[in-house]
Amino acid sequence: DEAFHGTISYTRHGQRHTEPLIEVLAHVFNHQTHHRGQLHSMIFQITGVSLALDLIYFQREQADLYR
User: Fold this and answer.
1) Distance from C-alpha of 5 to C-alpha of 46, rounded to nearest angstrom
2) Which pLDDT belongs to residue 20?
3) I need a labelling partner for 12 at 20 to 30 A (CA). Which of 24, 36, 60, 64 fits?
4) Contact 21/4 with Cβ under 8 angstroms?
5) How do residues 15-67 score in pLDDT, each as one tens digit?
6) CA 57 to CA 15: how far, in whole Å?
């Protein structure tokens, strides 16, 4: 719990940044949702088929492989 409320420092384009770790994690989670939406849109435009891209479907497939 303490680590989540700490900070993380990184360099991007030569500029040093320090951010609260919990905010960086929230951004990463939210940003992957953006890209998943882009992927879904591109696949649908090409195929006309709406695919199940939610993480839970991939987790269920993996669990089935190990049963």
Assistant:
1) 43
2) 94
3) 36
4) yes
5) 999 999 999 999 988 888 888 889 889 989 999 988 777 778 888 888 888 77
6) 39
Q: Name residue 56's amino acid.
A: I
Tell me how many degrees the CA angle 25-21-57 measures, rounded to the nearest 5. Answer: 20
Q: According to DSSP H, which parts of 1-67 are helical? A: 21-47, 55-65
Return the ∠ at Cα 6 (arms to 19 and 12), rounded to 5°: 25
- pLDDT band at residue 2 under the 50/70/90 scheme: confident
Of 21, 27, 18, 29, the C-alpha closest to 3 is: 21
Check if the beta carbon of residue 9 is closer than 8 Å to that of residue 18.
yes
- The neighbouring-strand residues paired with 20 are 7
